Structure formats: structure tokens, C-alpha cells
């Protein structure tokens, strides 16, 4: 039988033509269409049903039966199935159909469209070549060479385009025909007769047309006529046969020559968040399998987009109005409630002819950033939007940057240049810049003194009545909730006037003896240093002493009888002198022990003077004798002029010095020296023969009974 199957894509079904009568046993070419190449279905159509055979061979011997099953994408259908034989509907509606006649069979379920036709043949030949059903592109196809009497076959040989591709005794072979493969296959079977002669049978040629694994995809858009700026979902529509559910498809979408999204994905859909009108841009998609690798491309299509004019233009700021701080960036956000396509945004400041900025983009909003806003940038701002239908303006908003406070300056104002205890001073704190209100706080050694607010900005002050404890470092702080700033430290020294000093005597007695050393101590309990102390005896100044670091001061006095009377002291640190109360002191005569010491000292001094006078007389006599020749001149003499002759006979003149009144010597006496006696002796000498020179004097100071000199003899008038 020579059967030629011709498929016309313009027809709903294939057409089978038998151009010649059934031939004899000569081999004939068998066109076996396992599954016809599917025609393209409109987008949104139900997937095709798949017709299955059991046994899975589309060629059988006459007298055999084949059972047909109809399967959709969910499962095998067991009822409500429509069957067709050579395009004629069959009455049977069960899920399976048993056939024994050759022809084209198709089926359809309630959840699928009509399947591709399957051509099943029942042949009267002794040997047939069978191919497994169904077979998809790049899938394996099993070939079986089957005879009516299988036990007589000793060897089977398979050929492809007349070339041997394999042989076996009872095994099948597997081939992998490509889609639209034009190759022909056949097989031979050989055996032995009883008499030992061999025989060979040849099957009819078989041409296998393999079904597409999946049809070329079709790109669809939803909605089909979107509004510009709205989202659009693109779908790459194709499907896999039910038996290939384990095969996975991947999809990729393109706009012109640029891939959209993340590239290849397992989803057949891609959502474009906003669709813009861009002339004649075309879209298309691709679908592929990984194993085996099959790639198919959809036709290109254009998507028409509807444009909407802009409306409801609005200007917003970031940070919001009233929260912008000087130095921060200001972001002006211009947006439209409606409008599609390319929109041109511009920003303006009232009173300025030039725009602050301009942007053109496919978006419903745009931003303009103004860096480091200053105080002078305050004003009324607005924006405009235009998508070729004319600009639409927003409302105007006022923007005033808030200024953080600058570092304040602390000044201290008082009634005089030097602060004095009891004065009232004004602490004034002022920040040159800063948005009101400003809260000022005042500190003394970081301890809060108080606070004052400046609701309209400017300065604030705090009055302080000074005490001695207020000396130290002062500072102030400014805070306007945007920034806190502390001033530099300002030092303030409080001068405290001296209090009334207290005079004390040491030893603390009301009656003292002549010759005692008395310590007068004067001390003011309060007062800033330095303090100058004055000591008085009957309002006559005795002396003064300074206390550079405060405290008291002392003055030592060696007592005489004239020192009886009233004593007082005064203290002064430049802020006013203060006097102490008067202290009385009575001086009595010398004590016995001291009188004895003085008497012994005076007698010793007189004896010394007499000894010196005698020595002077002897020296004069010696010189007289040497001049007269009694004594040689060169023995023990010193060269010099000779004395006058008249002096040689004159006796030595010993003049007695006049007694002088002892004057008191004031000095600080160390403790434990109460028993010491100081003596002062004056020695007067007259040199004979020297009328041109006044008499010489010698002043020596002795200490104690031993008469140890404290200073050498000095010449004096």
C-alpha cells in the first residue's frame, strides 16, 4: 500500500491521498505521520489535547486492534470526549476508543482544543517497521522490526537512507530524528528454511515526521491598549504537550534589541511598571528548553499607548516646610496627579527671572536638590510641569531656613573695673546668629546660675550680687533647639575689702620689762591680698609690713621705758583702711640679771678704753725718744716724716671720751635670747701734731658678757 499524507496549514485537518491501487508484495514507501506539526492557535486558546495509542505503535497488522486515549494538560479524560475519524465525528464519548481501521484520528476534551491528527495503519504485509508514538523533536524514537512469525526471524537489520545503522536478533534500536527530518528508514528480517536455505523480507520504507516539542511563542500585552504611564503585562504564550510536563521552559522578553527585566526566567510573564509611548518600538519574546536545547522566537509586535495631559501639579519639600535648617540640602519635589509621556519639570523662585532647574523624564514626579541652603535663600517657591500641552503651575509655598545659634559671647558689666564684694554685676550672653526663640543659660564653674529666654532672638542677661565665693570662671550657653553652643570662659576676680584687724601682743601681758622684745601681730580675718599692715604707738607710726598672700603680719619691738602706752594697727588692701582696737602696754624697770650684764659690759668697755689710751701714750713716748737719738730710727720703725720738735716734750694727751646716751637698736630677736645683753661703745682718739684732722672715733658693738664684737671699728665723726 502506498500512502501519502499531505498537510496543508490553511486547512483545519490534513488530507490523505492514495494516488495508486494497492501494489503487490513489492516494498512501498510509507509516510507515517506520528503527530502532525501543529498549526498556530490564536492567543488565549485552550491547549491542544494529546491522542495516545496502546500499544504505542501507529502501524499494526490487519486483524489487530489499537486503543486510543485522549489526554489534556490535567489528566486522562474518561468521559465527555469527542472523537473524530477522517474528520467525521463518532458517537462514542467515553474516555477511550478501540479501533481496527486505518485512518486519521483526533480527539477533544472539555478542557482542551482539538488534538493533532494521528494516522494509524493496519497493513497486510508480513514484515512491518514500527516507530514509537508520540515522538517530539530531539527526543528519542524507538524503531521495531516486527514480523508475523517472530520465531522464524534470526536477524533484523535497520537502514537509514539505505545505510545500515544496526542489526540484532530480537532487539529494537533508538534513533533521534531532528524536527522536519527528511530521512527514510526500513528494516529487513532473515531466517533459514528447513532445507537450510536462507530467506529475507524487507519492510516498507518509513519516513518519520517529528512533532514540535512546543510551538513558536506568541507575545501578547495586557491591556492591549494601555494608558501611558500605567503598568503592562507581557505574556510569551506557548505550551508543552502533556507527556512532556517534566520539561521546563524559560522565557526572555525584548524591546527592539534590548532584553527587558532580568533576562531569562521561568515565568512566561513580565510586568512593565510604567509603559511609555515611544514611537514605533517593537516587542518580542523567546522561549527555550535547557535539555534538549531548543530556542524559538515570537513574531515582533507593537503596543499602542494612550497619552494623558498633566494635571494637579504639586510642589513638596524635603525636609518639610518649617523644618529646614541652614546648611542642609533642600529637595524640591514636583509631581503631577495625572499625565503620561515625557514630562518637563521646572522649578522657580518668586522674584527671579531664571528658573532654578529643569528636568525632562518619563515620570510623574521629579526632584531638584539645592545644596547647603543659606538664610538668604528664604522666599516663595513653585514648580511647573508640561507634557507638550502647555505648562501647568503648582501653588506657591514659603520656605524659611531655620538658623542654628552661633557661639555666644559672654560679657560681664559692673559699676567699676575691678569687681568688689557687694557689687551687682550683669552677665550678658548674646549669639550673633540664630533663629528665635533662644534660651540662654549662665554657669559659674559649670554650675548653673540661672537661665533667660530671648523670644525674638538677640541677647539675654542675668544680674548677680557678688560675694567672695563668686570668683572664678563664667560661661553661658545658647540653645534654640537646633544647636547648643557654649561661650568661652570669662574669669572674674572678686576683691574683698579688709575687715577690722585684731592686734595681739606676744607675750600677751599687760606689763612688760625694759629690754624685752615684744611681737606685735596684726591680722584681718577677711580681705583680698595683698594687705599692708601699719603699726602705731600712740598714733605714731612704728613701721609697716606687707602680707602678699593675705593673712597676718608681725612687727618686733625691743622695749624701753618710753614704749609704755597704747598700741594699734591698721590694714589696707586698696579698698579702704581698717583700724584695730587699742591695746595698752606698761613698761617697768630692768630686771636684776640684765642690769648685772649691762654693768659688766660698761666696766669692760671703760677698761678697754683706758688700755687703749695707755697704749697711745707709750707709742708717743717711743717716737720722742727715737727722735732724740736714744733709740735707733731703723729699729722697728716705719719710714716717714719726723714729728715736730715741740711734740717731743709734750706728754701724751689722753682725752676721755664723753659718755653718750645709749640708743635703742631694733631688731628681730630669736626666741631663747632673753638673757643676752647688747653693748655699744664709742672710742674717740686725738692725734697729736695733726691739727688739720678732727679727732677720730671708733664705734664697736659687743654682744653678751664675753664682749664679742658684732662689727668692726669704723671711723666716724
Automatic annotation (TrEMBL):
<keyword id="KW-0732">Signal</keyword>
<protein>
    <submittedName>
        <fullName>Fc receptor-like protein 3 isoform X5</fullName>
    </submittedName>
</protein>
<feature type="domain" description="Ig-like">
    <location>
        <begin position="401"/>
        <end position="491"/>
    </location>
</feature>
<keyword id="KW-0472">Membrane</keyword>
<dbReference type="GO" id="GO:0007166">
    <property type="term" value="P:cell surface receptor signaling pathway"/>
</dbReference>
<feature type="domain" description="Ig-like">
    <location>
        <begin position="124"/>
        <end position="207"/>
    </location>
</feature>
<keyword id="KW-1015">Disulfide bond</keyword>
<keyword id="KW-0393">Immunoglobulin domain</keyword>
<feature type="region of interest" description="Disordered">
    <location>
        <begin position="693"/>
        <end position="717"/>
    </location>
</feature>
<feature type="domain" description="Ig-like">
    <location>
        <begin position="501"/>
        <end position="588"/>
    </location>
</feature>
<dbReference type="GO" id="GO:0006955">
    <property type="term" value="P:immune response"/>
</dbReference>
<feature type="region of interest" description="Disordered">
    <location>
        <begin position="630"/>
        <end position="654"/>
    </location>
</feature>
<dbReference type="InterPro" id="IPR003599">
    <property type="entry name" value="Ig_sub"/>
</dbReference>
<dbReference type="InterPro" id="IPR003598">
    <property type="entry name" value="Ig_sub2"/>
</dbReference>
<feature type="transmembrane region" description="Helical">
    <location>
        <begin position="598"/>
        <end position="619"/>
    </location>
</feature>
<keyword id="KW-0812">Transmembrane</keyword>
<dbReference type="InterPro" id="IPR036179">
    <property type="entry name" value="Ig-like_dom_sf"/>
</dbReference>
<dbReference type="Pfam" id="PF13927">
    <property type="entry name" value="Ig_3"/>
</dbReference>
<feature type="domain" description="Ig-like">
    <location>
        <begin position="47"/>
        <end position="121"/>
    </location>
</feature>
<dbReference type="GO" id="GO:0009897">
    <property type="term" value="C:external side of plasma membrane"/>
</dbReference>
<dbReference type="InterPro" id="IPR013783">
    <property type="entry name" value="Ig-like_fold"/>
</dbReference>
<keyword id="KW-1133">Transmembrane helix</keyword>
<dbReference type="InterPro" id="IPR050488">
    <property type="entry name" value="Ig_Fc_receptor"/>
</dbReference>
<dbReference type="GO" id="GO:0004888">
    <property type="term" value="F:transmembrane signaling receptor activity"/>
</dbReference>
<keyword id="KW-0325">Glycoprotein</keyword>
<dbReference type="InterPro" id="IPR007110">
    <property type="entry name" value="Ig-like_dom"/>
</dbReference>
<keyword id="KW-1003">Cell membrane</keyword>
<feature type="domain" description="Ig-like">
    <location>
        <begin position="292"/>
        <end position="400"/>
    </location>
</feature>
<keyword id="KW-0677">Repeat</keyword>
<keyword id="KW-0675">Receptor</keyword>
Amino acid at each position: 500500500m502506498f500512502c501519502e499524507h499531505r498537510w496543508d496549514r490553511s486547512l483545519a485537518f490534513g488530507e490523505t491521498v492514495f494516488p495508486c491501487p494497492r501494489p503487490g508484495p513489492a516494498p512501498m514507501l510509507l509516510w507515517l505521520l506520528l503527530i502532525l506539526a501543529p498549526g498556530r492557535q490564536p492567543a488565549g486558546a485552550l491547549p491542544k489535547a494529546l491522542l495516545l495509542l496502546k500499544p504505542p505503535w501507529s502501524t499494526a497488522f490487519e486483524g489487530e486492534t489499537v486503543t486510543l486515549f485522549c489526554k489534556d494538560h490535567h489528566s486522562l479524560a474518561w468521559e465527555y470526549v469527542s472523537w473524530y475519524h477522517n474528520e467525521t465525528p463518532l458517537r462514542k464519548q467515553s474516555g477511550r476508543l478501540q479501533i481496527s481501521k486505518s485512518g486519521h484520528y483526533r480527539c477533544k476534551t472539555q478542557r482542551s482544543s482539538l488534538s493533532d491528527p494521528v494516522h494509524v495503519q493496519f497493513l497486510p504485509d508480513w514484515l512491518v517497521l514500527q516507530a514509537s508514538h508520540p515522538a517530539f523533536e530531539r527526543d528519542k524514537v524507538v524503531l521495531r522490526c516486527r514480523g508475523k512469525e517472530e520465531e522464524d526471524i534470526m536477524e533484523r537489520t535497520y537502514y537509514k537512507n539505505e545505510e545500515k545503522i544496526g542489526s540484532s536478533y530480537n532487539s529494537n534500536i533508538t534513533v533521534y530524528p531532528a524536527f522536519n527530518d527528511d530521512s527514510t528508514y526500513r528494516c529487513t528480517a532473515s531466517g533459514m528454511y528447513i532445507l537450510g536455505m536462507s530467506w529475507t523480507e524487507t519492510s516498507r520504507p518509513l519516513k518519520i515526521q517529528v512533532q514540535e516539542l512546543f510551538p513558536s511563542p506568541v507575545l501578547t500585552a495586557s491591556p492591549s491598549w494601555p494608558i501611558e504611564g500605567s503598568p503592562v503585562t507581557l505574556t510569551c504564550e506557548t505550551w508543552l504537550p502533556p507527556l512532556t510536563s517534566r520539561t521546563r521552559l524559560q522565557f526572555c522578553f525584548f524591546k527592539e534589541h534590548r532584553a527587558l527585566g532580568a533576562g531569562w526566567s521561568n515565568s512566561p510573564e513580565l510586568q512593565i511598571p510604567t509603559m511609555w509611548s515611544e514611537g514605533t518600538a517593537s516587542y518580542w519574546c523567546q522561549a527555550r528548553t535547557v535539555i534538549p536545547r531548543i530556542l524559538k522566537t515570537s513574531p515582533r509586535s507593537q503596543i499602542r499607548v494612550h497619552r494623558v495631559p498633566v494635571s494637579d501639579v504639586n510642589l513638596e519639600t524635603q525636609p518639610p516646610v518649617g523644618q529646614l535648617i541652614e546648611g542642609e540640602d533642600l529637595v524640591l519635589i514636583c509631581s503631577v496627579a495625572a499625565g503620561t509621556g515625557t514630562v518637563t519639570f521646572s522649578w522657580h523662585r518668586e522674584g527671579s527671572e531664571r528658573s532654578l532647574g529643569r528636568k525632562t523624564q518619563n515620570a510623574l514626579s521629579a526632584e531638584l536638590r539645592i545644596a547647603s541652603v543659606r538664610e538668604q535663600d528664604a522666599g516663595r517657591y513653585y514648580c511647573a510641569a508640561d507634557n507638550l500641552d502647555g505648562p501647568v503651575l503648582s501653588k506657591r509655598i514659603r520656605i524659611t531656613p531655620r538658623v542654628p545659634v552661633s557661639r555666644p559671647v559672654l560679657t560681664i558689666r559692673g559699676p567699676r573695673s575691678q569687681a568688689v564684694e557687694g557689687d551687682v554685676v550683669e552677665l550678658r550672653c548674646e549669639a550673633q546668629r540664630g533663629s528665635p526663640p533662644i534660651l540662654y543659660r549662665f554657669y559659674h564653674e559649670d554650675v548653673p546660675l540661672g537661665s533667660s529666654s530671648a523670644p525674638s532672638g538677640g541677647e539675654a542677661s542675668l544680674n548677680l550680687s557678688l560675694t567672695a565665693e563668686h570668683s572664678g570662671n563664667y560661661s553661658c550657653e545658647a540653645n534654640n533647639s537646633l544647636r547648643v553652643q557654649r561661650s568661652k570662659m570669662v574669669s572674674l576676680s572678686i576683691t574683698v575689702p579688709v575687715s577690722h584687724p585684731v592686734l595681739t601682743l606676744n607675750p600677751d601681758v599687760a606689763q612688760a620689762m625694759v629690754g624685752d622684745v615684744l611681737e606685735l601681730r596684726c591680722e584681718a580675718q577677711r580681705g583680698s591680698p595683698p594687705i599692708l599692715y601699719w603699726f602705731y604707738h600712740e598714733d605714731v607710726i612704728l613701721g609697716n609690713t606687707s602680707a602678699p598672700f593675705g593673712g597676718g603680719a608681725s612687727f618686733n619691738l625691743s622695749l624701753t621705758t618710753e614704749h609704755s602706752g597704747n598700741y594699734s594697727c591698721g590694714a589696707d588692701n586698696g579698698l579702704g583702711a581698717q583700724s584695730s582696737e587699742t591695746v595698752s602696754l606698761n613698761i617697768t624697770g630692768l630686771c636684776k640679771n640684765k642690769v648685772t650684764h649691762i654693768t659688766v659690759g660698761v666696766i669692760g668697755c671703760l677698761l678697754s678704753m683706758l688700755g687703749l689710751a695707755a697704749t697711745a701714750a707709750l707709742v708717743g713716748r717711743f717716737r720722742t725718744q727715737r727722735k732724740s737719738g736714744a733709740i735707733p730710727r731703723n729699729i722697728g720703725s716705719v719710714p716717714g716724716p719726723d714729728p715736730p720738735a715741740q711734740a717731743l716734750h709734750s706728754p701724751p694727751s689722753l682725752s676721755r671720751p664723753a659718755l653718750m646716751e645709749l640708743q635703742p637698736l631694733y631688731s628681730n630677736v630669736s626666741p631663747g635670747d632673753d638673757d643676752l645683753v647688747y653693748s655699744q661703745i664709742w672710742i674717740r682718739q686725738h692725734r697729736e701734731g695733726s691739727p688739720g684732722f678732727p679727732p677720730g672715733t671708733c664705734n664697736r658693738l659687743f654682744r653678751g658678757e664675753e664682749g664679742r664684737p658684732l662689727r668692726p671699728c669704723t671711723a666716724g665723726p
